[in-house]
Amino acid sequence: MKITVVGGGPGGLYFSILTKKAIPDCDITVYERNKADDAFGFGVVFSDETLSEFLTRDPKSYDLIRNRFAYWDELDVARNGEKVRITGNGFCGCSRKTLLQLLQQRCLEEGVNLKFEANVDDISQFKDSDIIVAADGINSAIREQFADDFGTDIELQSNRFIWMGSTKPLDAFTYFFRETPHGTFVAHTYQYEEGMSTWIFETTDETWNKAGFSVTDEQDTINKISEIFKEELDGHPLITNRSHWRQFPVITNKKWSAANIVLLGDSKATAHYSIGSGTKLAMECAIALADSVIKHKTDIKAVFENYEKLRRNRVEVIQHAANVSLEWFQNMDRHIQHDFMQFAFSVMTRAKKVTFENLALRDPSFPKKVLAEFNTNAGNENLLTSPAFTPYKLRNVKLENRIVMSPMEQYSAVDGLVNDWHLMHYGSRAVGGIGLILTEATAISPTGRITLGCPGIWNNEQVEAWERVTDFIHLNSSAKIGIQIGHSGRKGAVKFPWEGNNEPLDNAWGLMSASPVPFNDKMAVPAEMTQEDMDIITSEFVTATQNADKAGFDMIELQAHHGFLLASFLSPLTNTRTDEFGGSVENRLKFPIKVFTEMRAAFNSGKPMSVRISACDWAENGITEADVIAVSKAFKDAGADIINVSTGLTVANQKPVVGRMWQTPFSDLVRNTVHIPTITAGYIQDIDQINTILLNGRADLVALGKTLLLDPSFVRNAQAYEQHKADNLEDLGIPKPYSFATSHLYPYRGGERKMLEGMKKALKPLTHKK
Questions:
Q1: Residue 113 in 3-state DSSP?
Q2: How far apart are the first and last CA of the chain?
Q3: What 8-state DSSP symbol labels residue 456?
Q4: C-alpha span between 23 and 675 (Å, rounded)
Q5: Angle, helices 531-550/585-602, rounded to nearest 10 degrees
Q6: Where is the NADH:flavin oxidoreductase/NADH oxidase N-terminal domain (predicted)?
Q7: Which residues are within 8 A (CB) of 550 and not within 5 positions of it... i.e. 6 or more apart?
Q8: How far is 351 from 662, CA to CA, in rounded Å?
């Protein structure tokens, strides 16, 4: 078997070592364009988990690496001179040049052919090779030559970064943040051998331009950066090695192989350095590729299929986390405004993989500091109170905790009237400890319903039916209940979802919207609203508001999301008007703001109002970030107390990127740019995620939807898991008929948590500290 490896980086070398070890008669040749002792960059980083993998795969190279690396268990976050240390991280740094030399040595020991200063322009010379491994890096010429076959996509990110070294000794991996008149800079730093440390400086493109940097003027960069990080460098010089400012390319490929060519390392996929080393990713993929060759040998198709099977999902998960982390650094100026401990916590949890509980297992002292700061700011005497169970006040309405029941359609009303189902549905969640209930979308008129099973609040009979629900909740729980009031617009008159997804009723009523744009090809084209229509609709919203107050609701949320009537004015995808209500975001806002303003004037001044918006349409040419900020600011100025930040469902052809806590970045944008409280939602499933979001400052309240549908006692279980008020269970507000269960639930959930934490600690990779 003959294998040609183009690119003598760590990935290509490590693949060659593992494959040659397992298949000694395999002919493997590595072609590297540079000299054997050339190296660009300074240090590389490996985790304890990766080192454990190296140990099992090739103990000889593991020993060589381990004897030359600098190990640290600590991570520091520093900002403008303040610093906090977080332990229990387990990483090592190694000189890239040293790593290459060690791997070259192992290749020669195993009989791999190494050819240096061998630039490969034409791979046809390797036509007799069974496999050609394209390990030629981020600017892979082979990948570019066959880009269509691989389905290559390269997205250049906006932030600027530059890779340098220094003689400054460091005893921990450290993020140094500095605020300047131009904006925020960060240095990602770590020691990789005695007397040498890596310093990657990063800032936004806007800040970079304001500061007057040049891409290739290394001396000018050294002068400016050395001044910004004067205290951190402490008199030590910066060292360059082709250190030019760059923008990070996110590289993906739909296929990792074409004919007998296979991609490895950065040629295949890149992951931003803030989440981990590209070298680590390349070497882990080298293991999978070697395993696949060893297993299937000359069955090249099977080799490549197995390689992708082993690594595709893992690489995509890492890339997603890296992209989330990258986005955090692109918004440093937004996060830097937080108090220091909250800011440090945000740094540590930026990619969503690390949570509050993860950190508590690593280093209990750091989360305690974060909690103490949060509770101090919230005015709580108990500095260790779980964030989810801290009270929150909106106008005169005090919520006992920060967990919200998100609006979820029940499709169970008859003629707009709620009934026993709704009493049970909302009542059980209230008794279950929810801080705030938001009802399903409640229509202002018969033609404002989404389905025939949607509730309304346009007449007195409906008011009385809703009053039965609110009375029960207020009498039997400490929960507050808000009503979401809306009009379905172009998304109305559809069948129940179990009868067909967004399919129109047989006798559908006429639809209206901002513009005559149907939601999908099954539904009718809505009529474009006239001024008279707007006046009527506004009046109906006001009547619904007055009725909501009569029905005893503690709060109103205005439905302006998911492409319904008011939302159809806000998105450029659904508002194509050329009059005063179309075009600019200011024009698109006019009607929704008019409705809200008149509702606010008609509502009890002591009760809060929320607006739910869609902060992203997940479709080309949809609502922009600037639009979202303008929309949120306009509602804030009109008297909104909180914004419920949702996304999507504006158009049928949306392509959302869904995952854990996936909508929190949009809530973060609104909360920390417009400076208004927010509610967030979206695949939030446990108390740890809720606490992490709140401590991060990404939202003030956290809404759960499907999580609550089959678990009305989610909050009670979470309180027991957190041992919230364990010394004063009577203060939980549990109805007396249920209160006796706490003596069973609290020990059970507490024991369950201890068992889970023990398992997590047992699964933690062993330390490789020398």
A1: strand
A2: 39
A3: B
A4: 62
A5: 40
A6: 389-719
A7: 463, 467
A8: 11
pLDDT at residue number 478: 96
**pLDDT tens-digit map of 431-443:** 999 999 999 999 9
Query: Of 279, 327, 287, which is closest to residue 306 (Cα–Cα)?
Result: 287
81-106: average pLDDT: 89
Count other Cβ atoms within 10 Å, centred on residue 626: 9
Residues 6 or more apart in contact with residue 705 via CB below 8 angstroms: 406, 408, 681
The number of C-alpha atoms within 13 Å of 338 and in the hemisphere containing its C-beta is: 25
| Dist CA 173 CA 193 (whole Å) | 13
Q: What whole-number distance in Å separates Cα of residue 53 and Cα of residue 766?
A: 11
Kindly state the tokens that stand for 519.
Answer: 């939601």
Q: Which residues pair with 528 in a beta bridge?
A: 513
How do residues 118-134 score in pLDDT, each as one tens digit? Answer: 999 889 999 999 999 99
- As a whole number, mean pLDDT of residues 253-280 equals 92
**At a CB cut-off of 8 Å and minimum separation 6, what does 16 contact?**
3, 5, 28, 30, 107, 110, 112
The whole-number pLDDT of residue 769 equals: 66
- Exposed/middle/buried for 448, CB within 10 Å: 0-12, 13-18, 19+? buried
Question: Distance between CA 335 and CA 182 in Å, rounded?
Answer: 16
According to the per-residue pLDDT averaged within each range, which of 35-44, 50-59, 694-703 is highest? 694-703
Band the pLDDT of 349: cuts 50, 70, 90.
Answer: very high
Nearest one of 27, 7, 35, 14 to 261, comparing CA atoms: 7
For residue 393, give every residue at least 6 positions away whose Cβ sits within 8 Å of its Cβ, in sequence order, or none: 399
How many whole angstroms separate alpha carbon 322 and alpha carbon 478? 41
* Residue 180 β-bridge partners: 183
Q: Give the Cα separation of 290 and 307 in Å (integer).
A: 8
Query: How does residue 762 score in pLDDT terms, banded at 50, 70 and 90?
Result: confident
State the Cα–Cα distance between residues 757 and 737, nearest whole angstrom. 32
pLDDT value of position 765: 64
